[in-house]
Amino acid sequence: MASSLTLSHSITGPISDVYYALLHFKEFGQLHPHMKFVETVDHKENAIEYHVQEQLNLWGILPMKPCYRATVIEVEKDKHIRYQSEVKKGLFLTIDFTFATTDQQNNHTQISEHIILEGLPWIHIIFLSLLKKSHQQVFKNLQAKIISHSSN
Fold it and tell me: What is the pLDDT of residue 106?
């Protein structure tokens, strides 16, 4: 069984900065509130595999420390990035990020994030809720980082 969710994000800043942060998973991990460790495992022509360790408290009380491998694929340069991982045994996550600029100065980036979760249907609602909150925080952190770099 699969569940899906689509999120839209808007960043004031060049598409190149946003794209870089999502293509390079270590950068993404620095922006993510639960990722504590991201290490490159393997490079392929258009994909990089990472080992990821996260740490969070489910419902504020239940500690969880998921470890998994994630593959980042550049589907179409500057337009489409895909993340794939088995975040828990039997729970498969695919995230497709697509990018567009909304102004002539290339200073406003729209990101569409299409998430597909497969397996273990009883956990879908909880997992997608956590993922939505954490990814909203990722994009807030990314916006703050872009603003701080542009003011230097």
Answer: 66
